[in-house]
Specification:
By secondary structure, the chain is α/β, with parallel strands linked by helices. The chain has one domain. The chain contains 3 helices and 3 strands; from the N terminus they run βαβααβ. A 3-stranded parallel beta sheet has the order 1-2-3, with helices on one face. Helix 1 packs parallel to helix 3 and helix 2 packs across helix 3. The chain is elongated. The two termini are 20 Å apart.
Length: 83
C-alpha cells in the first residue's frame, strides 16, 4: 500500500523550508517508527502560504524547491508534489 503524508512547505507560521521541514520530518519518522514507508509527500498549498508570508511567487518557488530537495536528500525515492 502506498503511503502519503500531507505537509506544509510554506505557511504563515513557517515561511521558509527551514521553518517547515521539522514538522514533516517528524511525521515521516512517526510513520517509519511504526513500520511504515512513506512514498509521497503532498504539499498543502505552498503558494497560498507564500502569499500569507508576503512572498513573491518566485521566492515561494525557491523555498518549495529547497523543501523538496532537503527531503529527497535523505530519501531519494520520495516523491514530493503539490495537491
Amino acid at each position: 500500500m502506498a503511503v502519503a503524508v500531507e505537509a506544509s512547505a510554506v505557511k504563515y507560521w513557517g515561511c521558509t523550508a527551514d521553518g517547515t521541514l521539522p514538522s514533516v520530518r517528524s511525521a515521516l519518522q512517526g510513520v517509519e517508527g511504526a513500520g511504515g514507508h512513506v512514498q509521497y509527500v503532498a504539499m498543502d498549498e505552498p503558494f497560498l502560504g507564500g502569499d500569507e508570508c508576503g512572498q513573491a511567487p518566485d521566492a515561494t518557488a525557491a523555498e518549495v524547491a529547497l523543501f523538496a530537495l532537503a527531503l529527497r536528500l535523505r530519501r531519494p525515492a520520495l516523491q514530493v508534489g503539490d495537491i
